[in-house]
Amino acid sequence: MTDTTPRTAFPTGTIIGYPRIGRRRELKKAVESFWAGTTTADELESTAAELRSATRERLAALGLGRDDASIPESFSYYDQMLDAAVTVGAVPSRFASRVDAAGVVDLAGYFTIARGEGENAPLEMTKWFDSNYHYLVPEIGPETTFRLASDRIVREFEEAKAAGFVTRPVIVGPVTFLALSKASDEAPEGFHPLSRLDDLLPVYAELLTRLAAAGAPWVQLDEPALVSESIDEERSALLSAVATAYAVLGAVASRPALFVAAPYGSLGDALPVLAATPIEALSLDLVRGSVPTGLDPATASALAGKTVVGGVIDGHNIWRGDLEAAFGRLTELLALSPEVAVSTSTSLLHVPHDVDDEPALADQLKGWLAFADQKVTQVATLARGLVDGHEAIQGELSDASAALADRAAAPGVRDAAVRARTAALTAQDFSRGDYTDRLAAQDAALGLPFLPTTTIGSFPQTSDIRRARAQLAKGLLSEAEYLARMQAEIKRVVDLQEEIGIDVIVHGEPERNDMVQYFAENLDGFAVTQNGWVQSYGSRCTRPSILWGDVSRPAPITVDWSSFTQSLTAKPVKGMLTGPVTILAWSFVRDDQPLGDTARQVALALRDEIADLEAAGIRIVQVDEPALRELLPLKKADHAEYLDWSVGSFRLSTAGVRDETQIHTHLCYSEFGVVIDAIRNLDADVTSIEAARSRMEVVHDIQTSGFEHGIGPGVYDIHSPRVPSVAEVTELLETALSAIPGRQLWVNPDCGLKTRGYDETVASLRNIIEATRAVRAKAGVTA
Ligand code: GLN
Ligand code: ZN
Hints:
Blueprint: H1 26-35, H2 41-61, E1 72-73, H3 80-87, H4 107-115, E2 125-127, E3 134-136, E4 139-140, H5 152-162, E5 168-172, H6 174-179, E6 182-183, H7 197-214, E7 218-222, H8 235-250, E8 257-261, H9 270-275, E9 281-285, H10 297-304, E10 307-313, H11 323-333, E11 340-344, H12 363-366, H13 372-388, H14 394-409, H15 416-423, H16 435-446, H17 463-473, H18 479-500, H19 517-522, E12 524-527, E13 534-537, E14 540-542, E15 545-552, H20 559-567, E16 574-578, H21 580-585, E17 587-589, H22 595-615, E18 620-624, H23 639-654, E19 662-666, H24 676-682, E20 686-689, H25 698-705, E21 710-713, H26 726-739, H27 758-778
Helix pairs in contact: 1-2, 5-7, 7-8, 11-13, 17-18, 22-23, 23-24, 26-27
The protein binds glutamine (GLN) and zinc ion (ZN).
């Protein structure tokens, strides 16, 4: 600090961020109707302003202060990384027509960058740390002209002020912003966005000055990149960027106090670096990380002069948790600094709004849960404890402990039969026989042609299918009528595949709303919510199920659907299941035992399902694991343990089959190189992955890795309505064949077809088959 103005103290209780989509997904609806052209930008802006206002009022009612900067301004129309990009003027040149002379992008332009337009691809989307939230990846090059191009952050602070609030503006910090960006198309080979830090900082400095002028006492800069070891930057470069960035921002003459938030894990060696900068407050994720000990004297004395914000309330899960232990961790922080505050470990973006909004959930279960609003109340309670002492909150702490004890003892949380089964597992349960023997048995049993063709499982979900499912849920359609409609749909999809000439048939998954929720609804140990929506990306939300108890399968789930499908065709039908890792990743999972224990329970339920499919005459089963990469821990030291249980649970689910039964898996991405060993260890007979968008780049990774099992690199990018031409698919197949032996190669789209329309799907599949036939003919083999 260069001035001597006394700082406003950091609020004793706060949250890192709050859901932005609205209790009833109001923002989703408003944004989508703006996209559809039914409402204007002004109307969208006023809905957004109402939502922000409702959020502030709600947070104040739940116990955050109205005028002490404890309420974060964490709204976004689409994504916080995109917000940061348009704030600093980092718009890729292909969207230049959307930027005015002052560098400003209007609301329509903002969404265009997020969603693409004609030939101009949108910003790439990728997972935000180890969450199921996806952010847009900014593109930075030597040509990027940084300037303060949006004052939306300042305006939102002023909007709050006009309503009687003093809130805390939030923006992605400069280091995380650049570290998560990628090099633009114009950038030379080997360019690092982080190399533009010095040019970016003045823009942040100007923003700070503007916020100070508007009267903001504090600003929050999110720097989660500092906790991750999976960033494409040398750690030393990242650390020196932190030192530079916060030295520069700290020296801004007139600025708010700086609060650097570091969610998703421990700061590790970034802590001393950050501590040495002139920031006024920093948060520690004490759910994933622990209270740092053994600090060097310089760091210890620097921290003692800052507010240390303990992220003790889990922002990433929905359990009420152990409030007494959380309070204990906060008091430990007092050893680091006399100024301690309480917060959530991460933004509450990852959890639904309100447990009280779930009338259909059992009351006992509800007593164990805390969604965003309940977590805010917990923060307020702990803040009161910090000020008034343990006594003052004894009642709340005891209630939380009682709920925890109730949960531990509740029927279903521990099921003796399930536990006896997992306890009795031996190494044999995790492995199949020799691959060469399996290959021979499968070749004989299946009689598939050279370059077998298949799809990933789902076919387009028409409005008829969605309506039928909704009507069944509301009791407007009888079970029998629903079954008849779904069977008619399956027959249509099977006939279509036969007519097009696809070799391995799928049923199209019409009965599934969601690939995880469908299984959650049919397994014991899970509960599903009504309003528990969580933003996945942009306007897209998911409703994760709650995995609260020991998991078992009361009855076969997919067997009737698959047998019915097989009865319609002589070709092999592929049974379709979601794997244990993905079921865990896309649910809210119990936190009272290691994930690996839970995964093995899910795996055993799936293993039984696969055994029943096999007994019913299904010769191929696909177990989807698109989340395998996503759950990979941010810290390298945690990788081995994760890979052990994740790969192990997949193997446990699939290893019970005969040699001639073919196991497929599907992964949604092409970062094959990163997890190649894990993929090999899954020991699936066939693995399909995404490859079309990257023009088969992945085949070289596959080649160099010596992967020997069946592999289906996607030849059709299903994220776009574009129909790939025969020539294009032929070329992709030839590229694949130049690197991978033909006997290993499968032909399939990148992913499921459920989000596509029928016309483009049929045209694309026809082209895929025609291309495959041409390539087969050229290779001298015909089907
Ligand atoms: N079998 C699923 C489908 O085809 C797979 C979806 C996914 O990978 N996300 O839709
Ligand atoms: Zn996929």
